[in-house]
Protein: VWFA domain-containing protein
Organism: Owenia fusiformis
Amino acid sequence: MFISSAISCVSVVYFFSSFVTAGRPSIDCNFEDSGTRVSDREDSCIYYYCTSRRLWELRTCAFGASVPKFYRKYYSHKRTKLNLCRNAFSTECYQTVLERKKGEPTPPKPTPRSTTPTTPRPCLKEGQGRCPGGGKCCGDLQCDNKGICRPLEDFVCPVLGEGCLGNHVTNQECCKRDPIDTNIILNLKCGPGKTCCVTEGGECEENSDCCEDQNDVVCKIDENNPEEPKTCSRVEECASLKEKCGPSSAKQLDCCNDVTQLQCSREATCCAERGVMCSGSDDCCRGLECTAKTCQPPTRIECPSPIDIVFAVDTSCSVADIDKDHLRTFMTEVTRAFNIDDNLQDGVLVGALTFNQGYQHTAYLADGKDDGKLLNMIENMNLTEVGCKTNTFTALDVMKNIYFTQDHGERPAAKNWAIVMTDGKTVPPGKQAKTFKNADALRAMGTEVLTIGLPQSDGSIVGEDEWLGIAGGIKENVFTPDFSKLRETLVSIGGRLCGEQNVYVNT
Ligand SMILES: *[C@@H]1O[C@H](CO)[C@@H](O)[C@H](O)[C@H]1NC(C)=O
């Protein structure tokens, strides 16, 4: 009599009370599964609820409801949308979550009424209809918009992946805050398919979590905070191979660097860097060639000992623009050919200046500590002449007094090489003696001086005697290519500086 009246009275009165985070089931709680439940095999009073935060939260069946034995076994390794607290009666499930948290002993269960209920009309059970006119719902059951009694938890605002508005029993918008922890803002909205989806900036697991009506928004990791969960974020546009880039381009895009390493070239187009796949040399950045399907320097020079090289490049008016571009490519190939590094085993440092009327700075030896920075300085070196002079004496002077000083990165343990590239003789001619004197002064401090003599824009050769004089009369230190043969000159110079056997040419 006692048991049967208790069942009739309370067995259908159950609801979820509050929750504490407890041990998690061994199966994952994903976004797709939010709202599903898993039972605890050991404890008939609790089950786990998968939240939109991908957390299993512990919930307690209260007031005599419990998870039936079969459910406990069956749903401990399977998710279900079923309300697990049903169809059973357990004398142990009076404990409230608060007590569970405190670890307090179970309070004595309330004495069930042993007399016939005085309510004339029985309350409506879960799934029973025509509330509120046809009767009140039992316990904490609520009357939904179709007049059916439902458990309270069905009235929680819909979370990610659940139907919303007309697709939800309560006709509710998606949860603005986590129904469990209201400190958590969910960034949900009722998306185009009347399903809750994540708005821009909200946490997500997959692209399909992000609302479809947001263009260019994907679920991705913030590269600056890779530890943080993914969020629905706008894809940043970037320029692909051969597309326009940089501040001077219309859209001012950076080159895409996530998959392949691309650089924005001097010509403001994206080019493939060293080691990147290519289909032809015009894919590759300056100073690289497409070799065996990747961009590689055409020449590699592996010096057995450290050296410091400073180039002085003549940009006087007699050098044609097309030849200046050859010079730029040559200087870039030089920088890519050596192992640019300041280590004292085999590191090579490169500095550069230009000269005409006076000299202009390009890069110090010290800039080679960062080979990317040096490469950028060299590729973008300013070859615009300033005045129509060839002040070779000035170039040699600043090489000695500025460029080959420890203040600007010169290493006493590395051999110094000064390389003068010019298409003619010292202007004004009366200063030629000063040119020779300054070259001698460089040699006196242990720097070997090399000249690369180039033809003038009309093809004539002017200045062979001076080139030999600058090189101290050493014929092996004078190179006389034309502008289209500078790559071969790099191979010869590499042999002179580091030994022919240490020069590798791509074929
Ligand atoms: C290059 O140098 C010239 C002469 O000094 C100067 O007028 C010009 O602005 C420079 N160009 C750049 C891009 O710095």
Notes: The two ends are 99 Å apart (CA to CA). Residues 382, 384, 386 surround 2-acetamido-2-deoxy-beta-D-glucopyranose (CB under 6 Å). The domain at 299-505 is CATH 3.40.50.410 (Rossmann fold).
